[in-house]
Amino acid sequence: MSLEVTFLGTGSAYPGTARGAAALALRRHGDCWLFDCGEGTQTQLMRSHLRAARITKIFITHLHGDHFFGLPGLLCTLSLQRGPEPSKAPVDIYGPVGLRSFLWRSLELSHSQLLFPCAVHELLPTPDQCPAGEFRDFSGWDTGEAAPQSFPGRILHLDPGEDSYLLLEDEQLVLRAFRLFHRVPSFGFVLEEKPRPGKLDVQRLKELG
Prior knowledge:
It comes from Climacteris rufus. This is RNZ1 protein. Pfam families: Anti-Pycsar_Apyc1. GO terms for molecular function: 3'-tRNA processing endoribonuclease activity. The protein is globular, with a radius of gyration of 19 Å. It has helices at about 40-45, 65-70, 70-80, 100-110, 200-205, and strands at about 5-10, 25-30, 30-35, 55-60, 90-95, 120-125, 155, 165-170, 175-180, 185-195. The chain has one domain: Ribonuclease Z/Hydroxyacylglutathione hydrolase-like (Metallo-beta-lactamase, Chain A, 4-Layer Sandwich), CATH 3.60.15.10. It has a 7-stranded mixed sheet. Strand 5 (about 90-95), helix 4 and strand 6 (about 120-125) form a beta-alpha-beta unit. The chain is α/β, with parallel strands linked by helices. The protein is about 20% helix and about 30% strand.
C-alpha cells in the first residue's frame, strides 16, 4: 500500500507568514485524505503538488478554529472546481459533534451551495475528554426545521471494547479515532495497515528441499 504524507500547516493557534494553520494531507491510491483544515489550507494545497479535487475524505481533530476554520472555504472552492457530480461518491467529513451544524450554518448564512454530495459523520465525545466544566453538548443543535436540509451522515459512538471509534475499513486498512484530552474534546486518528500474507510456491520449496 502506497502512502504519502504532506504537511500543509503546522502552526499553532494562528497562521504565520511561513507556516500555515494545522492541516495534513495523506495521499493513497490517487485519493487525498485531509486531516484538519485550518485557515489558508486551500492556499497551501495550491502551493503543493497535491490536487484539491482529489480530496475524498476530511478528518477534523477538534473544534478549535485553527483546526477547521478553513473548511467552509475549501468546500466552496471544491464545488467551483468540480461542478455538479450527483452520481459521484460523497466527500466524507469526520469530526466531533457540532461540526455538521457549523458547516450547515456557515454555508447557509453565506448563501453558498455545494454542487457535489457531501456527508458529515460526527463522533460523540465523552465528558472526560476535557477539563471539568468545559464540556458542552452540541448533539441537539441539528434538530428542528433545518435538520432535513442539513448534511447526511452518521453519529459514531465509542466502542467500549476497543476504546475507539471505527471510521472505515477495507481490505487493506482500518481507520479508527481515539479520544484525546484537550481544552475541548479532541480525537486522534490511527490508520493501521492490515497484514499482507506472502505467497509461497510450495512445490518449488519442496524441490529446493
